[in-house]
């Protein structure tokens, strides 16, 4: 088997932690696997380097910032290679550039456009464990060093797994998998043993922080099975992969065939809502508004437009966006008030988004009704609604978020005491 | 003009120091020069990284150690580029590999074998200040990252100056030049305004620590003028270059035409002396001894063989070597005692070496006599003697070193109060 393992910064926080990771890597190699390891910078290294940069320059040039920050993964990669060598195995560390991770030239947020893993496969052929510095690559045009954006070592790992034809990719982190809800809000939340790419994508987009959105997109596109698990235990974590159809004739799966309708409940509280009141109900007005906002690179999430009031020919448009972009969006829209002729602008950052996600809702009607009545029973008022084929999201008041998450979690039978609701085909 | 500047670790110890260096670099650029900067790692970074490596593995593989340590210069290079950009000038940092510094594959102690500075000249053509990470390169065969050995950023700077056809190379450090003797031993020691490559080479080989031996060799071979000066002042330092012949008709140099016979007095106390007593005086015995020692990679310095005592046909051979290699050499020689048939082996690590260096001794007879009588007057006993065309070295007891240095310094008129003894052609 060929395995790619990724260890995050908390797994390599100091020399002792690096030695622990080395043991785990060596154990995998001793099982006879080819092992490629993608590594993040140690603990707070990236933040410390960023602080140092800001002490030298308030606005460091992105090219130079990439040059600086990539030193972090380079150091942890070399140290892990040393720790593995100290346990008697051959190891070779490679920078993103040496590993053939070719990216766009957008410093600080580059995208992988190709992987030429010649040096990796050569080292594997020579029976080496290969350690690749995560989060970094080399720009195709300029040959300058790039970074893929914070947390993107996961993406490096999945992309390498795809390029190397690995059997699976293990993402080691400081939690033991993906949960049905945030355990800090729902103490009865359970680890999800297996989840499909599509569900994981919706969960990640709706606030589940364990896996980076771009990493899940990559895994889905390339069909790379991903195992999210804890580097502090040997327990199984969460498998993200194509869901295996349940075989009802398998006695092992007897009594476990009930597929959960909902895989998990995600939430986030980092968005704000803007409502544009009294927009003339004419073709093209909405386009003008969102073009203006889009021009500022603001990432709009949900959009709702009310039915126009016939007597006034005016409508209200609401949308959500990151709170950090609120001021910019308000300024852009205020500048447009006269030309568009809307009557008012409302801003609300005391909101939260609660989402239920599950492929089961494709085949189970009534999920929306069940979700909304659970919210009603918990006395939660719904502000906005948005849905996909496998997700229902609602915007609620910020103070209602925890209550809404818990109510949905219970309503869909996800609480840990209900033993029947586990996935079929788990336990591997 | 095209200038290469090198700043050592103490010049970039923290964010404030980096900003100070940036100001100096920008000022040079504003004078209209092309500027390439070679930078060391910040302060104690290299030592800290080495400590970290040893906490992970007692014997880190050299390839991985190079991967780790090179992060230090990468960080300081990026930070300096940021600080320069913050002062409104374009700057681009390059790793040794990006700068085209091609080396042998000897990790930890690689040698530069070629420089392909295409990315540097391109950046200079685009009016950028170029910052190159010192001390590092890329192995020609494996494309792995290499280091040139401790203190070798000076060599990087001189090699780049030669390759780029720079007019001169400035080495910024925490002292203001090369002194006629170590000022801690001889308080009246003076800064040497100008010194030839050959003299500097002898000084460096005999214990003057400011410039790396390999850097001086490179500068001499490529005829690169080197200016060693302090990054904490704007005073002139020491120029290492081909000595300009004095023009006696130049009135500016009237009264200063007396060339010093001796440029400086160097010393070191890191060597030990081994004496092999009663070696059979036959052809090939000395060769066998030194072949055996050389096979262990020990760097032998001075060798003295006494005239053989006719009645015994036996001779004594003494040599000096680094104290750190003493035990190895003794073990090797003990193993040879029977086959060679020498009678005894003596080891003395309480010695020191004192050298007087100066091209003036070529044309001035009597330098040896003057040196030895100064030592005799200071009651210093001479153990071994070795000479080159422009150097006389003696081995003395360790406790006599300071007294011997001071006596020679005074005897050759180098003390600061003697105004007449300064170099002709200085003051630039």
From TrEMBL, chains A, B:
EC number: 2.7.2.4
Signal peptide as annotated in the record: none
Alphabetically ordered keywords of this record: Amino-acid biosynthesis, ATP-binding, Diaminopimelate biosynthesis, Kinase, Lysine biosynthesis, Nucleotide-binding, Transferase
GO molecular-function term, one example from the UniProt record: kinase activity
Entry-linked Gene3D superfamilies: Acetylglutamate kinase-like, VC0802-like
Catalysed conversion reaction: L-aspartate + ATP = 4-phospho-L-aspartate + ADP
Pfam families (alphabetical): AA_kinase (PF00696), ACT_9 (PF22468)
Broadest EC class assigned to this enzyme: transferase
SUPFAM superfamilies, sorted: ACT-like, Carbamate kinase-like
Alphabetized NCBIfam families for the sequence: asp_kin_monofn, asp_kinases, PRK06635.1-1, PRK06635.1-2, PRK06635.1-4
Family as reported in the entry's similarity comment: Belongs to the aspartokinase family.
Entry protein name: Aspartokinase
Protein source organism: Microlunatus spumicola
């Amino acid at each position: 088997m060929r395995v790619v393992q990724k260890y995050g910064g908390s797994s390599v926080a100091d020399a002792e932690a690096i030695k622990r990771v080395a043991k785990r890597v060596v154990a995998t190699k001793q099982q006879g696997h080819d092992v490629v390891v993608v590594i993040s910078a140690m603990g707070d290294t990236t933040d410390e380097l960023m602080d140092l940069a800001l002490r030298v320059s308030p606005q460091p040039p992105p090219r130079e910032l990439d040059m600086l920050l990539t030193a972090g993964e380079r150091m942890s990669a070399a140290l892990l290679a040393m720790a593995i060598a100290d346990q008697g195995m051959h190891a070779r560390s490679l920078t993103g550039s040496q590993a053939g991770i070719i990216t766009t030239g957008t410093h600080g947020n580059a995208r992988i456009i190709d992987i030429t893993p010649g040096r990796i496969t050569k080292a594997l052929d020579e029976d080496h464990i290969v350690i690749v510095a995560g989060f970094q690559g080399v720009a195709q045009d300029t040959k300058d060093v790039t970074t893929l954006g914070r947390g993107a070592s996961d993406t490096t790992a999945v992309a390498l797994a795809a390029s190397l034809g690995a059997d699976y990719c293990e993402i080691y982190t400081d939690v033991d998998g993906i949960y049905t809800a945030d355990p800090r809000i729902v103490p009865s939340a359970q680890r999800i043993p297996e989840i499909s790419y599509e569900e994981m994508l919706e969960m990640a987009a709706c606030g589940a922080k364990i896996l980076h959105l771009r990493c899940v997109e990559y895994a889905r596109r390339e069909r790379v099975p991903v195992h999210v698990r804890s580097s502090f235990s040997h327990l199984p974590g969460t498998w993200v992969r194509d869901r295996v159809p349940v075989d009802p004739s398998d006695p092992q799966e007897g009594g476990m065939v009930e597929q959960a309708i909902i895989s998990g409940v995600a939430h986030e509280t980092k968005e704000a809502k803007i409502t544009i009141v009294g927009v003339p109900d004419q073709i093209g007005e909405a386009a003008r508004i969102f073009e203006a906002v889009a021009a500022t690179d603001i990432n709009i999430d949900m959009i709702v437009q009310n039915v126009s009031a016939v007597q006034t020919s005016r409508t209200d448009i609401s949308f959500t966006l990151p709170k950090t972009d609120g001021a910019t969006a308000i300024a852009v829209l205020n500048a447009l008030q006269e030309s568009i002729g809307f009557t008012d602008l409302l801003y609300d950052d005391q909101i939260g988004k609660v989402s239920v996600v599950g492929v089961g809702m494709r085949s189970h009607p009534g999920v929306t009704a069940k979700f909304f009545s659970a919210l009603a029973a918990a006395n939660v008022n719904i502000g906005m609604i948005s849905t996909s084929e496998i997700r229902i999201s609602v915007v609620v008041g910020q103070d209602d978020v925890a209550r809404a998450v818990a109510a949905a979690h219970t309503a869909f039978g996800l609480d840990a005491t209900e033993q029947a609701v586990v996935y079929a085909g788990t336990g591997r």
